[in-house]
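Quick note —
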Amino acid sequence: MNAHYAAMVMVVLSVAAYSVISGGQIPTLRAFFMAMMSMMSILLNRHSNLFYRIFLVALVFIAFDHYLLYSPSFYLSFYAVFLIAYHQLWLLPTTKKIYSYAQLNVFLLIGLMPMSLFFFSQYSVITLLANVIAIPLAGFLILPATILLTTITALGFSAHTAWHVLAMVTQFFLNSIHAFSWITLHVPGILITGHMQWYQAIILSVVILFSFLPKGMPMRFLGVIVCIPLLYHPSAVDLGHARLVFMNVGQGLSILIKTKHHLLVYDTGPKFFTGGDVAQSIIIPYLYYHGWKNIDGLLVSHGDADHSGGAKTLREQFTIPLVWTSDLKRVPKAMRCERGQEWHWDGVDFKILYPDSAVKFHGNNRSCVLKMSIGETSALLVGDIEVEAENYLIDHLSDELSTDVLSVPHHGSKTSSSENFLNATHPRYAVFSYGFLNRFHFPHSVVVQRYANHHIQTRTTENGPVSIDMTATGLTIFPEP
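Predicted structure written out below.
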């Protein structure tokens, strides 16, 4: 066999072997198919450029698994290779390899930003520095050494010293990545946040590609022209409108209320026993996705961990001017929520109905009850109140309980949602917030049937957030995509 052909076969076999031991991840499978196509084109004497191969391999992936069209890693993986090919196409001949490598990383840093903001609503500007350390260490040292030492050990040879050295190198690698993560989260200006619409990401990508054309290319000026549509960014919420989002936070409760210029967070979901909380893993990414960069108010209904678990994280990440709670021990440096507190944001009225100074209840039955209204349309958020608090509300505030949307008390516990309370509130819609297969077995079947008997339409956060758009003329409720 021709030595050149033999080398190509060995390359393809090596890439195939690595794809197998790596678990068949998208980047390795992409490398395998592209190596295979390159070899076949040479063997069959068919010319094909790199862009054609990238496009064809992407089609092969989609043909085998069309669900990849919903995977961010699919787009990021192939677009990164496209950017590398684009850079190589216009790269002027140079013997300065380090300069060329740095130039490529800068291009990738800028080029991948629109897609990252579209999929993840955040991007770190020190990605370039992280790649300078991570790619050479992982790709050219740690990974090959691991495969080599694994093979040597499997053959029965001793390699203790080599494993020890590799462990130290790997620890240095992990420490470096953790350091970059810490810098990204704690140094202002490092993390870019804000969601891009798909058309904005495409336009900005085109601008970047035009901008990196060689000097003197006649089409570079088009990059400025196609930027014009980026100036158009319609507001998702108008004056006199509000959007309620019942977040899917597992066993807990968190509701986002967005008006045109303000955002209120009602409860913050649970804190995890293993570390972290829902605010860090769900609420903040959701805010970044929608470009909501400020929280104007935080209301923690009571101190239970499944309602207050993320409060500390939100207060560390955002400057929140107004914080209310019924439990100042769990949520310090806050105002105590009491009946009579009212405010008006962008045509939307907010009023705390409960508790008042006469209430002697504690725990669940002292949950802050908030009513928000736009004209005749309203929503009632009640935390974890149980029958005792429900009866107190009926006895003292029956005229103010009627509502269109009700957050189901105490996740659908049988100690809440009494017949009298449903008669007093008679909502059109009710939203259950609970965790999938939770240990409390919420919601109770008797409660679910009770809502059905009252002909109340129900939604649950079990499979994702529930979003409600409210106006003075009515409301629209739908599952959030």
